[in-house]
TrEMBL record:
Name of this chain's protein: Putative transporter AQR1
Subcellular localization: Cell membrane
Keyword Chloroplast attached: no
Similarity comment text for this entry: Belongs to the major facilitator superfamily. Bcr/CmlA family.
Keywords per UniProt: Cell membrane, Membrane, Transmembrane, Transmembrane helix, Transport
Species lineage: Bacteria, Pseudomonadati, Bacteroidota, Cytophagia, Cytophagales
Any GO CC annotation of this UniProt entry: plasma membrane
Length: 419
């Protein structure tokens, strides 16, 4: 029972760690109109604070990958979360949109430590054959964020003002730091042979990227995973401006749509008993491609009202709960010693693609739903194409990718749970 409780507690902490950045993205979305009003700017300018946050996450993960491998998991994690707390307080007291955009970038640089460390610790602490299942549970915790964050953000904004959203975020991360210190295992020991000089770091990243299995599932899963960021960026304008819903109503709509990801994440674990991670990823991207195409065609034809749009986005987002854990598991399976660097590259691509998707929605903004749904569909189509091309390369070189993922490190044992 004690080992079971320890396992649950570790997965919960890792899930919360990985949730810091998604929570930071989702919670302030209902405050967009108030931010634009108070900072004397437009919503599409405020949207750039989301883009800067995603850019910060992408770049920051490349920084933390080598740091986590060289100094162990916890010390870089503490440093990053401290930067996050300070930048979050700075966001609360900003008086201009441009300062907010800058503070959000710094906030992301700090907060992304949690994302990289959480993924690397999963690889450290659990057998390869269990990674997809553990990541499904972790994704479940992450998926709760978009259900509650915008709702909480909407009520906080309405009751106290948008500034208190950032105060709440800072308090949450302080509590997370305490939980890490008290209950999270240290993971893999520091590796002093890992150099932090630019040339060796780049050589290490290159050695990871040369692995065809990693490259295929990183690109396919990562670009496919950018689609929800187009939705996140565009949905405040679509629902609160075009459909004229309130901040609180928007929070509830966001929560309902997030239930799609939670439901499919819950299904992923039992589905893995019958299907491989590679099969589930293929299904997810195919589903999103079909639904994304219907969203674009229907939006051009004027077929959908508010509820029709919500229904199709719900189905589209259901694919996300199958994409993320399975593409991550297939990407990380070949690595142990370089798990930190592999996690960083995986997260960098995912968030970098998300930043581009978010920026595209802002640039294409035309007071219709078309920019949002078009970028969502494009991400899914590109992800599926890359998966099909990459899978042929893997199969021609090393047999089934699903089998290869489990054979490469079949005999390697996870690190015992210890602080």
């Amino acid at each position: 029972m004690k080992n079971s409780q320890n396992r649950f507690g570790i997965i919960l902490i890792l899930g919360v760690l990985a949730t810091i950045s998604p929570f930071s993205i989702d919670m302030y979305l209902p405050g967009f109109p108030a931010l634009a009003r108070d900072l004397n700017t437009t919503i599409d300018h405020i949207q750039l604070s989301l883009t800067s946050y995603l850019i910060g996450i992408a770049l920051g993960q490349l920084l933390y990958g080598p740091l986590l491998d060289r100094f162990g998991r916890k010390n870089p994690l503490y440093a990053g979360l401290l930067v996050y707390v300070l930048a979050t307080v700075g966001c609360a007291f900003t008086n201009s949109a441009d300062t907010l955009i800058l503070m959000r970038f710094v906030q992301a640089i700090g907060g992304c430590a949690g994302m990289v460390a959480a993924l690397a610790l999963v690889r450290d602490l659990f057998p390869v054959s269990e990674i997809a299942k553990v990541l499904s549970l972790q994704t479940l915790v992450i998926s709760v964020s978009p259900m509650i964050a915008p709702t909480v953000g909407g009520y906080v904004t309405a009751a106290f003002g948008w500034q208190y959203i950032f105060i709440v975020l800072a308090i949450i991360v302080v509590l997370v730091i305490i939980a890490i210190y008290l209950a999270l295992p240290a993971g893999r020991a520091p590796d002093k042979s890992i150099s932090l000089l630019p040339q060796p770091v780049l050589r290490n990243f290159y050695s990871v990227l040369k692995n065809p299995q990693f490259l295929t599932y990183m690109l396919a899963g990562g670009i496919g995973a950018a689609a929800p960021f187009a939705y996140i960026s565009g949905s405040p304008d679509v629902f609160m401006n075009i459909y004229q819903v309130s901040e609180q109503e928007y929070g509830w709509i966001f929560a309902i749509l997030a239930a799609a990801m939670i439901g499919s994440t819950q299904l992923n674990t039992p589905l893995l008993k019958r299907f491989s991670s590679e099969q589930l990823l293929t299904f997810a991207l195919t589903l999103q491609t079909v639904v994304g195409s219907l969203l674009v065609i229907g939006s051009l034809a004027g077929w959908y009202g508010k509820y029709g749009l919500i229904l199709l986005i719900f189905i589209f987002l259901a694919g996300q709960g199958l994409n993320v854990p399975n593409s991550s598991a297939l990407s990380l399976a070949p690595f142990a010693r370089q798990a930190g660097s592999a996690s960083a590259l995986l997260g960098c691509l995912r968030m970098g693609a998300g930043a581009l998707a978010s920026a595209a929605v802002s640039v294409l903004h035309n007071q219709t739903v078309l920019p949002m749904v078009s970028v969502m569909a494009l991400c899914a189509v590109l992800g599926l194409i890359l998966l099909l091309i990459g899978r042929k390369q893997i199969q021609s070189g090393a047999g089934s990718p699903a089998d290869a993922a489990l054979v490469i490190l079949e005999t390697e044992q996870p690190i015992p749970f210890k602080k």
